[in-house]
Amino acid sequence: MRTLYHLWLHPFSRKVRIVLAEKGLEFNLQIEKVWERRTEFLALNPAGDVPVLVEPDGTTLSNSSVICEYLEEVYPETSLLGLDPVQRAEVRRLVGWFDVKFNREVTDNLFGEKMMKRVLHLGEPHGPSVRAGHANIHYHLDYIGFLIERREWLAGEQFSLADIAAAAHLSAIDYIGDVPWEEHQAAKSWFARVQSRPSFQPLLEDQVPGFSRSKQYEGSNS
What we know:
The protein is of the alpha+beta class. It has 2 domains: 2-74, Glutaredoxin (3-Layer(aba) Sandwich); 85-220, Glutathione S-transferase Yfyf (Class Pi), Chain A, domain 2. The protein has 8 helices and 4 strands. Strands 2-1-3-4 form a 4-stranded mixed sheet, with helices on one face. The longest helix is centred in the middle third of the chain and has 35 residues, at 85-119.
């Protein structure tokens, strides 16, 4: 059985979890408290971060982009990158948008400051960063709405890794109640469709020890 080392609500780990489920691949989940710097885990990934996927034959992969590209190549029956070069280019562009730009401008400033700092005992959230995250998220939700008004899914007519990456980040922020869904109905409707997929359902059961889920996240899980 393959094993995915992950951390609660970690967007990049969530992205890989959804991809594995969409491709119908069985896997065990293993929480890895990366701050403990376990020797056994560092032997799997010297960078010391998650996600890390260990295949049944012992093949070990780290970095969510690398893992997802590997899964697409080795298990191509369900394509999440698109069927032609133009589609794949657009999917990769949007994955980069959310994994780099959104992560820097929103995820780090909200989820990182308000959740991970507490988990890691790194002090109080940095107020200016949190305010920046609250301001920036509107721009990104507007962009999701812009795309969805013109396409069935973010990158085109097929559900893809672009939708998975975006939803993975937004779901972590939704846990702490910081997604202003009511001001962005198009993005809210798209997110509800992603949440309704069987691959997403197990993520709604996630619970960070010592941290309550927001009421809006609980509503998603009702």
